[in-house]
Amino acid sequence: MTFNREAMLTYLSDELGVDIEDINDDTLLFTDGYLDSFSVVDLVTYLESSANISISPSEVNLDNLDSVGRIITFVDVKTQ
To answer: What residues contact 24, with CB distance under 8 A and at least 6 apart?
Structure first.
């Protein structure tokens, strides 16, 4: 699996039911209610498998996962 912005948006739409027409890189996914706490496990599992990274419990936070832009930055840092 390959991780990139387009794959991330497709995942949000197809798997988590987010209307990506309303989403830009700075939209707060959890804070604004697009995703809920049940989505965290699915999102982390997706990121770990698609980006081939391991995410520790301490990294599961809004600073890293609350927007597409934050997720892309987080994954970029983890894969360097």
So the answer is: 68
Closest CA to 23 of 64, 71, 61: 71
The DSSP 8-state label assigned to residue 66 in this structure reads: S
| DSSP-based three-state secondary structure for 78 | helix
Whether pLDDT at 1 is above 80: no
- The structure's pTM equals 0.94
5-78 belongs to which homologous superfamily?
Answer: ACP-like (1.10.1200.10)
Element (H, E) at 73: helix 68-78
61-77: b (≥16 Cβ within 10 Å) or e: eeebbbbbebbbebbee
Q: Output the pLDDT for position 45.
A: 97
**pLDDT by residue (tens digit) across 8-44?**
999 999 999 999 998 999 999 999 999 999 999 999 9
